[in-house]
Amino acid sequence: MPSAIAIFAHPDDIEFVAAGTLLLLKQRGWNIHYMNVSAGNCGSVEFSPAKARRVRLAEAKEAAKILSAHFHPPLCDDLEIFYDIKSLRRLSAVVRESRASIVLTHSPQDYMEDHMNTCRLAVTAAFTHGMPNFRSIPPRSTYAHDVTVYHALPHGLCDPLRRRIIPGAFVNTTAVQAIKLKALAAHKSQQGWLDVSQGMNSYLASMQEMSRAVGRLSKKFKFAEGWRRHLHYGFAGSDIDPLADALGKDYFVNKAYEAALQRGL
Ligand SMILES: [Zn+2]
């Protein structure tokens, strides 16, 4: 059975930008894996770090259950996600366990360092999937099949310098939007936190609006998630697009983006 893994920084990041794609893969017979690198201990103004860790772990496990995804526990705390060798070895073990041929992760450019560091860790952990001389912690056997890395859209659909990020491809999440919403709703503790920290009246409504905005960008789908595909060198033998193969008509390549890549803009 083919397998995909979502590696994101914080509990609820997957539900904002990637859960719809995971659900569609699941419906097509894929094994799906769910990993938040951080415990989410800073995402609260009412709980102590220890309680926030506990509450958010339970919420994330519940969300993974709603998505029918294999849950992988976090590795560290908020704002402590660094591109260091220990984190890389531990994440390499998770990728090897998943045997994933699709790795979904953050945009290389995003509004906060945890997201960007998670992206770097996920990319290199994927790179080591077939590299037996790189030691994972705990030791896990490597695998030889191709891996393709896809980057989600950044928060607010722009980079940290406010530049717009345009998706290279769109996934039609309309049919699974209700389950995506239910999985996000499992992160109950985030209603108060996102209200205080980001002025979101309702984090559920914000996710719906973001999905609708990406759908509008596609000019094709009501709700959508957007992706940019990583260069295949070192990951796969050729320039493949397994999301296109798996999702068929629910996947739409942005031809203008591809043309701009070729022009080097
Ligand atoms: Zn986050």
Low-confidence stretches at least 5 residues in length (pLDDT < 50)?
Answer: none
Structural class: alpha/beta
Helical content class:
40-55%
Can you tell me the overall shape?
globular
Q: Count the DSSP helices.
A: 10
Could you give the distance between the termini? Answer: 38 Å
If you had to describe this structure to a student in words, what would you say it looks like?
This protein has 265 residues and is an alpha/beta fold. It has 10 helices and 8 strands. It has helices at residues 13-17, 19-27, 49-66, 85-98, 113-127, 177-185, 190-198, 203-218, 242-247, 255-263; strands at residues 3-8, 31-36, 70-72, 102-105, 148-152, 169-172, 224-229, 251-253. It has an 8-stranded mixed β-sheet with strand order 3-2-1-4-5-7-6-8, with helices on both faces. The longest helix is centred in the N-terminal third of the chain and has 18 residues, at 49-66. The chain is globular. The protein binds zinc ion.
What secondary-structure arrangement, pairings included, does this model have?
Layout lengths: L2 E6 L4 H5 L1 H9 L3 E6 L12 H18 L3 E3 L12 H14 L3 E4 L7 H15 L20 E5 L16 E4 L4 H9 L4 H9 L4 H16 L5 E6 L12 H6 L3 E3 L1 H9 L2
Parallel strand pairs: 1-2, 1-4, 2-3, 4-5
Antiparallel strand pairs: 5-7, 6-7, 6-8
Helix pairs in contact: 3-6, 4-5
The structure holds zinc ion.
Zinc ion binds next to loops.
